[in-house]
Write a structure and sequence with these properties.
Length: 271
């Protein structure tokens, strides 16, 4: 006997890759109420947006809601850095300047596809509160300390939420008030040994939409994280384990798959 779609959905929503419409509607309505009543909400993109194929829906939401947009370090490359309200990488104490201040002082934040491990949470030191958070995973949404909605696909949720929020630029306005641009690294004197800060100044100028950056564990993580990615520039780095070596295979694989890109690997842990 054939198994009907409805019973398959009850068994496993991620298998059929469809949202349960009732759960989706309930999740969107509850999230909209939660975010609408907040004073200075923020959006943060996480690495699972990739498997959830939700990067476009995230941008739709970012465009519509007026909130500042930050990215988790392991999601760099999945959130457009040329977005008018992009505020950088949220990485606790090692965030882009002024980014953590805005995220951690918000009274509501939506994290799309986060992975909070020892690396991304800087040894579990993030000053986030669960009751202020909406956590959107590839097929599940949790709002504050509850409720949780299963069988809701991230891309459907973000897409629907984009049409249901009150526009609120308070947190971005705050950011604009406190933001001070970083100084330019000095130029090196003739004959002076090349320094990393000067090297990266030149690398920044080399990047374009047809480049891709692969960052190895260690110093390269931190230096590459500070690069401002032009539209279309690829970016890969992994935060699941800290051993070096990953980037060599990643570079070969990436270069095979993205033949139109100039792939630039950064290897070296600064020792
Ligand atoms: C949120 O605000 C928008 C825009 O004002 C409104 O259309 C929507 O009904 C509100 N939703 C909730 C649940 O408060
Ligand atoms: C941030 O925004 C809130 C709400 O608009 C306001 O009360 C607060 O003073 C602002 N903080 C800064 C640093 O501008």
């Amino acid at each position: 006997m054939a198994v009907g779609l409805a019973s398959l959905m009850l068994m496993n929503c991620s298998f059929v890759r469809l949202s349960n419409q009732m759960n989706l509607e309930a999740a969107v309505e509850t999230a909209a109420a939660f975010l609408n009543k907040s004073v200075k909400p923020v959006l943060v993109g996480g690495p699972k947006m990739r498997v959830a194929k939700a990067c476009e829906a995230f941008v739709e939401l970012a465009d519509a809601c007026g909130y500042p947009v930050a990215v988790m370090p392991s999601a760099k490359g999945l959130v457009p850095e040329h977005h008018s309200r992009f505020i950088g990488t949220y990485w606790g104490a090692v965030s882009t300047p002024f980014c953590a201040e805005i995220v951690e002082s918000a009274d509501a934040y939506l994290f799309a596809g986060p992975i909070f491990n020892d690396y991304s949470s800087v040894g579990y030191s993030l000053l986030l509160k669960k009751e202020k958070a909406i956590i959107v995973q590839p097929d599940r949404v949790v709002i504050g300390n509850g409720p949780a909605f299963g069988c809701v696909l991230m891309k459907d949720f973000l897409h629907a939420l984009a049409t249901r929020l009150k526009k609120n630029t308070a947190a971005y306005d705050n950011y604009s008030r406190i933001f001070v641009p970083q100084g330019e690294p000095l130029s090196s004197e003739p004959g002076e040994p090349l320094r990393v800060n000067i090297l990266f100044k030149h690398i920044q100028k080399m990047l374009s939409g047809s480049s891709a950056v692969i960052a190895e564990t260690g110093d390269s993580w931190f230096n590459c994280q500070k690069l401002k990615l032009p539209e279309g520039c690829g970016y890969e780095f992994q935060m699941q384990y800290g051993s070096i070596g990953w980037s060599v295979g990643a570079t070969l694989g990436y270069a095979q798959a993205a033949k139109d890109k100039r792939v630039i690997s950064f290897i070296g842990d600064g020792s």
